Queue: 3 jobs
Job 1
Amino acid sequence: MQRFGRRGSGVGDLERPGDVAWGVRGGSRVEAGGGAGAGMPDVPSGLPAPGELPALPDEVVTTTVDIAGHLPAKLAGMRAHATQVTIWEGDDGQRAYTLSDGVARPICTVEQFTLASGRVDPASVRTDLFAGVVG
C-alpha cells in the first residue's frame, strides 16, 4: 500500500481517503501478459491458465503509470532477490518472472493502482499517482 500526503501539516498527512492507493493488476493486462508468455519458448516454468493469476476487474484501476523508462531498475531490483524470484527475458523483449509456485507471470511496463476511496470519475484513469502532492 502506498500512502502520500496532500496539503496536510506534514509529509504523509491525509486529507481524504483517496490519498491511499493499493498496487493492483487489471485483468486485461494480466491476461494479455500471460498469453504473451506462450511466445517465450525458453521459459522453464509453467504458463498460467486463463484466470489463474490474481487480477482485479479493469474498472477498479484508477491509475496506470508507464514505467518503461524505469524497467532496467525494476529488473535489477527483482534480480536482487534471486532466492525468491527468477527472471527470464526473451529475444524479442518479452519478460516473465516466477515465484515459488512455478507459474510464469508477465513483467509489465506499467504499474497499476486503485485508490482506496474508488474512482472519482468512472471515465478517467490517472497516469500520475502523485499528481497534486504537496512536497
Job 2
Amino acid sequence: MVQRALRIFCGTFVAGVLLLSPLHAFGAIDTGLGKTAEGATINTAVKIEQYTGIVIKALFSILGVIFLGIVIYAGLVWILSQGKNDEITRAREMIIWAVVGLAIVLAAYALTDFVVGKLADQTLVK
C-alpha cells in the first residue's frame, strides 16, 4: 500500500515537473519583458539559432529532471528495501546507471555547445 502511494506520488510529481518545465523554458509564462523591449525599440524576433538553442536547453532540462526522478526513486527503493540484498542491489544499479546517463547528457551538452559555438564563429560576417 505504501509503495503504491509512493509510486503515485512520484509519478505525479515527475509528470508535473515535466509538463511545467518546457512552459518556462519556451517563455510561455508572460514576464512582461516583451512589452519593455518593444518600448525600448529592441528587435524581439527570434532567429532559428535562438529557437534551436531554446529547444536544446529545454530537452536537457527535461533530461535533468528525469535523472533527478530516477535517483529519488532509487533512493526510495533502497530505503524501503528493508535489508533485502536484491532490492539494495537493484537500487544501487539504478543510481549508477542514472549517473552514467547524466555524464552522457553533460558530455552531449558540452559537445553541442562547442560545435554550435564554432559554427557560429565561422558563419559570422566580419
Job 3
Amino acid sequence: MNSNQAGRDSTRVALALALPGVLVAVVTGLSGLASVVSDRPFVLAPAPSSMAEAAGYRDSAEIVRRAGLGEDPNRPGLVRIPRRLDRATPLTPLEAAVISERTFTITLLRNEGAVLDPATLRRLRCIADSRHDRATIAYLSALTTAPLECQGIEIPR
C-alpha cells in the first residue's frame, strides 16, 4: 500500500466519522429554523410557555414547577399541541389536559388549585365527548349528575 492510498483511506475514515455529527447539526439547525418560521420545531420538543401548554404536553413536572412559582392554574395560555390542534389556541390548563386525554393531569391540576365549577365541567365534558375519549368522559361524568348538553359550546380544533 502506498502513501497516496493510505492518505485517501484516512480521509475516508475521517469523513465517515464526521458525517453523523454534521447531519445532526444540520437537522437541529433546520429544526430551529422551522420553529422560527412555523412556530413549531420538527425535531426537538418545544419547552412549554405556560402551565396550559405544559398540561397539553402532559408534562406533570412542569405543571408542579410552575404552580410552585405561583402560576395560576386557571389562567388560559396559548397552547400548541401538534396532531391534536390545528394551530396555537388559547386554552386553560384543564382544557389542554382534556385535549391531551390525560385524566391524571386533570387530577394534578385540580390538586394545584384549578377550579372545576359546573360551567367548566360542562365545557370539559363537551371537549372530551368531541374527541371520543372514553377515559376522560368517564372521569368527568363521575363528577356530575347533570346530563351532557353541548349546544353553544365552542370546541377547540
